[in-house]
Amino acid sequence: MSTNDSQRARLAELVGELAVVRGKVTLASGLESDFYVDMRRATLHHEAAPLVGHVMLDMLEEAGLGADEVDAVGGLTMGADPVATAMLHAAASRGLDLDAFVVRKAVKSHGMRRRVEGPDVAGRSVVVLEDTSTTGGSPLEAVAALREAGANVLAVAVIVDRDTGARERIEAAGLPYYAALGLTDLDLA
To answer: Which are the contacts of 69, defined by CB distance < 8 A and separation ≥ 6?
Structure first.
């Protein structure tokens, strides 16, 4: 078992313990589900957050999207924010340069009036993140905003894939889709 395997297994365990809420719920997509994965309970947890950063970095590296290929990570606020921050810190701990960014849901009406906050993404290669995805709508909204800001979007990466169409929709839009954990990892399938 590699370090990544043990980190991924521990992350799955923590997500299952901290973030999975069973019971009828309406998701942001409007779909109904028998469970909810409240990822902020994991992405903002003292043990799970660092694991998120390392597991996501390792997953992208294994997919050929290491620190030499990716300049920055982030996505639509708020689900992507702690994921991007965890990856930024994990990369720094490895001596790697990786920036993070935040995509607002709408342009600010004051200040710099930017939709993409953080270091400028124009001309840079980025990966769009999400904590969990159902239909792929939030990542695709971030992709559109990033392309408008001049970024080269390489892929979409999520911690948990609910297996409800996000992968298919994102791949149909021409982007690779990576998920660190699936429903089987969380004993939900």
So the answer is: 125, 154
Cβ-based neighbours of 4, under 8 Å, separated by 6 or more: 54, 55, 58, 62
Indicate left, alpha or beta for 163 from its phi (over 0: left) and psi (-120 to 50: alpha): left
Please provide residue 93's backbone torsions phi and psi, each rounded to the nearest 5 degrees: -65, -20
Evaluate if pTM is beyond 0.90.
Answer: yes
The number of beta carbons lying within 10 Å of the beta carbon of residue 85 is 19
Grade residue 24 by pLDDT with cuts at 50, 70 and 90: confident
φ/ψ of 183, rounded to 5, equals -60, -35
Instruction: Determine the Cα angle at 118 with ends 147 and 94, to 5°.
Output: 100
Beta bridge partners of 33: 25
CA distance 136 to 164: 9
